[in-house]
Amino acid sequence: MRNKEEQVIMTVDLETFSKDLKLETVYAGRGSVTLATMSVERPGLPLAGFFDYYDASRIVVIGLAEYEYLRIFSTQERREKLSKLFEYGEAPCVILSRSLLAYEELLDSAKSKNCPILVSPKETTDLMSDLYIYLNRLLAPSCSEHGVLLEVFGVGILLTGKSGVGKSETAMELIKRGHRLVADDSVIIKEIANELYGTCPDRIRYFMELRGIGIINVKSMYGSGSILDEKKIELVIELENRQTGKDYDRIGDKEENAEYLGISVPKLTIPVSPGRNLAIIIEVAARNQRLKRMGYDASQELIEQSMGKL
């Protein structure tokens, strides 16, 4: 079981931040953006003098409403309002929507705090939506798991099990059969909108270790169609060496779950024995999971039919 970690604080260099969100830099300031919250600030009320709920750790977005509100004031009044806004703390950055031109008073106030100023061509609503998605993914609670994450018939499957049980070899067979690799060995799991998504640490992305061969690059060997950067985790399959005397599920009516970051995911335990074709079994598991997602359960149908004949 994994629990949610405390909210992370991340510092992203301004060039990366601008590229990710397709922003133009007006003033680079400190050259980085420190992100500590998924919320974004529209400073209409603070500009009007109400600061009770203003959070200086949020990205400040100035849309058309705030921009036109500032326009009605004299240069001196505008300077005072913007100066007061920046006095409440060091905002990560200020972003203007609709390609609005930054007021000189805004630039002067930002420079006093070394705060970056950026501009987006998008309307404010679209910009806010982009920021929400970006911040939720970047600052999402996360944990790591030893395993392999694949997309099989559109289903995100996390293979777990002890080292040497055959996770990577099974994954390699699935990739050969046209399925896609997300991560091998270390899987970063994030909770986004009450769902689990898995990705791979950048340093080992696309790489896989096969005992007896060594390290291979899946993308270089099988092409870009064989890899995926991120996938929702819908099924966990634990591979374990077959244990004599253990009662393995043969009907599929026993529900088992794995839990990460407080969220449960369906789990299967598959025994590994010589000569067993695990790739085919995992393909069947993926198809069966898709059917269950659509409301069909073969084991339930069999039970109902059997009871009807009694």
Describe the structure.
With 310 residues, the chain is an alpha/beta fold. It has 10 helices and 17 strands. It has helices at residues 14-21, 44-47, 64-71, 75-87, 104-113, 124-138, 167-176, 218-222, 278-293, 298-309; strands at residues 10-13, 24-27, 32-35, 40-41, 59-62, 94-96, 117-119, 142-152, 155-160, 180-192, 195-199, 207-210, 214-217, 230-232, 235-241, 257-260, 263-272. It is elongated.
In short:
This protein is of the alpha/beta class and 310 residues long. The chain has helices at 14-21, 44-47, 64-71, 75-87, 104-113, 124-138, 167-176, 218-222, 278-293, 298-309, and strands at residues 10-13, 24-27, 32-35, 40-41, 59-62, 94-96, 117-119, 142-152, 155-160, 180-192, 195-199, 207-210, 214-217, 230-232, 235-241, 257-260, 263-272. It has an eight-stranded mixed β-sheet. Strands 2-7-6-5-4 form a five-stranded mixed β-sheet. A two-stranded antiparallel ribbon has the order 1-3.
Spell out the blueprint of helices and strands.
Blueprint: E1 10-13, H1 14-21, E2 24-27, E3 32-35, E4 40-41, H2 44-47, E5 59-62, H3 64-71, H4 75-87, E6 94-96, H5 104-113, E7 117-119, H6 124-138, E8 142-152, E9 155-160, H7 167-176, E10 180-192, E11 195-199, E12 207-210, E13 214-217, H8 218-222, E14 230-232, E15 235-241, E16 257-260, E17 263-272, H9 278-293, H10 298-309
Parallel strand pairs: 4-5, 5-6, 6-7, 9-15, 15-17
Antiparallel strand pairs: 1-3, 2-7, 8-9, 8-10, 10-11, 11-14, 12-13, 16-17
